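Follow-up to my earlier ticket, as requested here are the two runs.
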Amino acid sequence: MKLFKVSLLFISLTLFSCDNVEPTIYNKVLTHGEIGFNISTTPDGGAVKLTIAPFGLSVDNTPFIKNISGKVTNSEIGDMNGDGFPELLVYTKAGENNTGNVEAVFTNGGKSISLIYFRPTAEDSRISTGYNGLDEFKVIDNQLRQRFPIYENGKATGRTRQAMYSFENGEDMGIFKLENVSEY
């Protein structure tokens, strides 16, 4: 009977403590040497709250928090600019067409994080013709690769456009610079 009461108390406390915890939609921990990131999303009203919590940085490990549309599909870590310190890329999809986006940070020489800007595909005339979402992202040979099917008059053509981006860091913010576009 005593074991039953202790078990019941434990279950009650567990259920009570879980009421205040936000459900996690996406959670992944990525590391590169001594530096890493805990990437998570939780519901926030009608949006989704993305939290990138760095650890192992020498000066500032303050999390980056942003409301995003849609959902996180994957995340990757790597040294895209060859400085020995990691960049983190978080891939998202939103809307009817699963329009892709990249939320990314670099680590300022291992001291703190700064944002990397990814220009929305629909706003870039060099690649937006025939764009209708369904993006795929991947880091390959220190470049960001984006692929998506090409549409014409609202219908898939069977062709794919591929865009390759390099990472350039600045003082306050980095940027993904479009380097090459191909179709196949």
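Run two:
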Amino acid sequence: MKIKYFVLNKRLRAEKQIRELQNLSLSDVKKRLFWFAKRLPDIVHLKELVFFTFFFSFVIFILFVQRYKDLDNYFIEKKPAFGGLYVEGVVGSIESFNPLYEGLNPAEDDVNKLVFSGLLKYKDDKPFPNIAKSWEVLQDGKVYVFHLRDDAKWHDGQKLDAEDVVYTIQSIQDPDVRSTYSGIFRDVVSEAPDPYTLKLTLPASNPSFLSNLDFGILPRHLYEKTPGRNMMVAKQNQSPVGSGPYRFDKIEKKQSYSQVFLNANTDADAKPFIAKVRVRTYGDEDSMIEGYAKKEIMAISNISLSKLDAVKKLQNITFLERYFPRYTALFFNQKSETMKNKNLRTALALSVDEKSISGIFDKEKVLNVESPVVPGHLGYNKDIKDMEYDPSKAEEILKKDGWVKDGSVLKKAGKELRVSFYTSNTEEFKSVSESVKEQWEKIGVVVDLTYLDSKPLQEDHIKPRSYDVLLYGITVGSDMDLYNVWHSSQKNDPGLNLSYFSNSRSDKYIELAQKSIDKQKSEEMIFKAQELIMEDMPAVFLYNPAYIYGINRSVKGTDISKIIKQSDRFFDIENWYIREETR
């Protein structure tokens, strides 16, 4: 019994001494060893001599291992190596791939960014070379001349040249194609003086023009015989051929999910380190989170604020955050007979308690937005505010407009005040829309709330503008160009004027702001356009949520600190890596 107690006591003392030694500096270790050495003459028992001999040997071994590791880290450097598989999860569906329709399906946008490449890349409000290696801006910003790389190839081995870019721009301009980029390239003349020179002539100067040139370029030799009206459903969209960092291999469609298989483009200007990439779809965010826990995927894009706590419990995950120039708003569709009534729009706006909506989420993950220009961008005016929450005033306005309470419901001439309310089938939008619905019902409005997945929401409601109210998120870009969302020419698809807002004076200010090379003048025009937009009450601006990207710690080299939209997270995917090797 005494021997067991002695051994246990000595072992505990040894463990304590070792823990202390691990935290000592080299000079402290020398002092400790000197102290033990002085004690050696006092050791008279054999068992203590054995113990101290073992202890000294173990200490010397520990010091040797620690010093070896230090030398290993100092002299042996690791560098990224080619190989590995990266799998990312997204919520939604994936059917086809065509970069001319960016913004209609975020999941497809992600794949398009990996397969196709643009003239330029854009990050931190700055353009970077991509297919174009250099460019000049001439004639006070009306003419752009781009010099293309002569080594760029399509994934099928064909050379990529300026005629491909001209074809892509002309396709964007074709009204039958209905590209989401059509407003940007209206009246732009594109020419190819030689195979590797592109000339773009604008009708007027546009200082923000370069920021729009990251659109994916289409291979002319594969699409030139496709009629514009068939572009969205072209068979080439099922097996895309691009010039980006990854080649399309196949799409696997199962009953509950789809999975896109991509291989590294070894002919790319900057060859990716990660050999294979897969993008896997999920029906909802809960399923995607479960997929990460099961190790089906290695990253979760666009984590909703309501699910962040659940995702934080996952193992081996790190989080990247970024605020994009975007906002979530309630858009009142003035194409609808119901919403043409400004008094009704005003009453609905007064009945939205924005503070309670923001309170649904972590305050550190949400920025308040009160106008079409988000804080920190050109034209932002802190004095322009949304209406303060005042349901009593809202009821007064509706009463003067002829609406009378019949029980808990407002009616006029026997007809209920009813609005159709659509939004995306995500946890974030569900939470917000439910809160808004409750607030409107309190003043007597009957709300028909519908959640839809991205594709049916786009095809059946957003494109034909079939809704009274739409809760939706808009990414406006780094230059805060109001044209695509608030110019009257963008009221119909593929424009993004979701409120069907129209004002000739506002249009004029938006055009002047877009064309001016004088920053101060542009800001003045944006101020005036904002005032007219807010006066008409076409929307209630709610918040700007943080974009949160959860990614496995085994994936290194990622950086989203300067990107301006979700799909831009792959801006420098060629620098991401999983495997390492010694130099």
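The only thing I checked on run two: The domain at 83-115+244-322+548-583 is CATH 3.40.190.10 (D-Maltodextrin-Binding Protein; domain 2). Let me know what else you need.
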